[in-house]
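Hi R.,

Quick one: here's the Response regulator sequence you asked about.
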Amino acid sequence: MARMDTRSEQTQGGARILMVDDDPGICDVVSDFLGKHGYSVDCAADAREMEQALEKGPVDLIVLDVMLPGEDGLAICRRLAVGDGPPIIMLSAMGEDTDRIVGLELGADDYLAKPCNPRELLARVRAVLRRAEQRNTSGELGAGCEFAGWRLDLVRRELRSPQDVVVNLSSGEFSLLRAFVERPQRVLTRDQLLDFARGPDSDAFDRAIDVQISRLRRKLDDGQGGQDLIRTIRNEGYMFTPKVKRT
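And here's the predicted structure, written out as tokens:
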């Protein structure tokens, strides 16, 4: 039977996390553990209960299981990533690279195989929330920037093509593009990009950077004539080639 367990009383002013998983045992363990570390955790068993929880107020992060009754986690992730939804950490018993990459391709910010150590999940939660906070405190960087006809609004997290069409970016794609525009025409290694875009708690061997770069390249190719904005530097890393003008 579907269930919802609201635990917002566990914290005062902490980030609100929504745990979407139909396993009551996992929900109890994760919500209790995160609650003890200062987070307000709501639990939902399916997409319907998730929507009910979201109607109660803004959520800072969603921990989303792949295998759910009704609409599965991948479909939910795809739907939420289209809008300006909260960051998503996906959990799945399917821990193969292909499954992980699919989740990241659909817009997830991170992906953990089940069963996972609650302490590792806590570290990932902290890292994802820290990146989201950094994105929201970008006043010192100016409102935005322009490059090769594109415009990136760092406050609204909005990318516009040279044809003035809004291009939707997941939070991971935005973090990566911001790391590039802040360091144009410089060779950046994968480790540096992991640190700049995903935070120092990321796994240095995480393939997410390559996945995100592939997605970002496809979006930057649309409508701008195939210009090579993100160049692969063999045996070194990547370079963002255009000049960047702050606005």
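The longest strand covers residues 16-20.

Cheers,
M.
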